[in-house]
Amino acid sequence: MIIFNKETHYDKLMSRGFEKYINKRDLIILATHWVEIDNVPQNDIIERLIKFCTKWNSEFNAVKYENLLLSVVKLLNVSHETFSTNKQITFFRQEIDNISKIEDKNLQKVLFIIMCIAKWKNNTYIYLNNGNAMKLSDIFKLAGVKATGKQQELFLFKLNGYGFIKVNLKPLLKYDILCLKNIGEAVKAFDVSENMIEYFDELTIKNPITCQRCGKIIEKKVNNQKYCNKCSKEVRLEKDRIRKSKTN
Fold first, then answer.
1. DSSP labels, 193-227
2. What does pTM read for this prediction?
3. Domains in the chain and their CATH numbers?
4. Are 184 and 92 in contact (CB under 8 A)?
5. In sequence order, which residues have a C-beta less than 8 Å from that of residue 120 and are 6 or more positions away?
6. Which helix (H) or strand (E) holds 187?
7. Rounded-to-10 torsion of CA 199, 203, 204, 206
8. Residues of the chain with pLDDT under 70
9. For the chain: N or C, fewer Cβ within 10 A?
10. Which helix (H) or strand (E) holds 168?
């Protein structure tokens, strides 16, 4: 009885390449070893597979094998896309200044989330809308921005126009995040979570203060400002009720 040993087969693949042709089983063995043994981030697996295939087949076409590569990574069943609450990311002054250059607040939020994800993955790029990556709609959901599919694509087109991201179509679709600096003055570090957008206002608002009623970060517009607009109205109404009750 012949027992198939995945690690032995992995060693053969690394030293000899594919026995006959590129196949899904061998690609899964490679990808699984890199993730489970070498601790390679899932976001890097496709590029590793492409480099491996090109090494042993100079005529390898990544676009032709795109669906196969994506299906391999999808089968890894690794929870790299689940945000870890024990991993912190840090934003730097120059990065915040870049975000502030955009006038559209919703566009700022989308860029902020894209940068958060890239920092979380520790990569200057992210894949979107394929088997091993976050969907574009997830980006907008995390940003709290409602937009149709076409509007979402337009957002990315605008960010590309600003020079903050660059769309690369080959060998596979990915977005390079050009505005990640990770140098200079560190502004804030925080845990990665589904609620990352909560830090957006704190980082991007000029002259920020904390509303003394609800705790929301708001922009200070007058010297004696204590509350956000909503709480300010509620405080005035409460004072009016108290004043009326005293007169009655």
1. -TTGGGGHHHHHSSSEEE-TTT--EEE--STT--S
2. 0.61
3. 6-80 (no CATH), 88-201 (1.10.10), 207-247 (no CATH)
4. yes
5. 83, 84, 87, 89, 192
6. strand 186-191
7. 130
8. 1-4, 76-86, 129-134, 169-173, 248
9. N
10. strand 165-168
